[in-house]
Amino acid sequence: MLEDVIIVGIVMSATELIKYLLKKRVNEDVVTQIIPLIVLLLAGLLNVLNAKIFAPDTPVTQALAQGLTLGAIAGGVYSLGKAALGKS
Hints:
By secondary structure, the protein is mainly alpha-helical.
């Protein structure tokens, strides 16, 4: 399986892209409210896909649980970065 750091990095990059695209179509307040959910879902789905490709014997529930944990980590890292830049 791919390392956790790679999944977190992909989630953070994809989240920025999704946020950019959503802000063009939806109110910024709505985007701010749904981004944490998008981060968790994206991380969960990417980790399940990761497990199915590189470790097919891994149970889906275990991969999903780990993915949700990685999503929480990605959300936390993202929030720390915003706070450090004074954008929170």
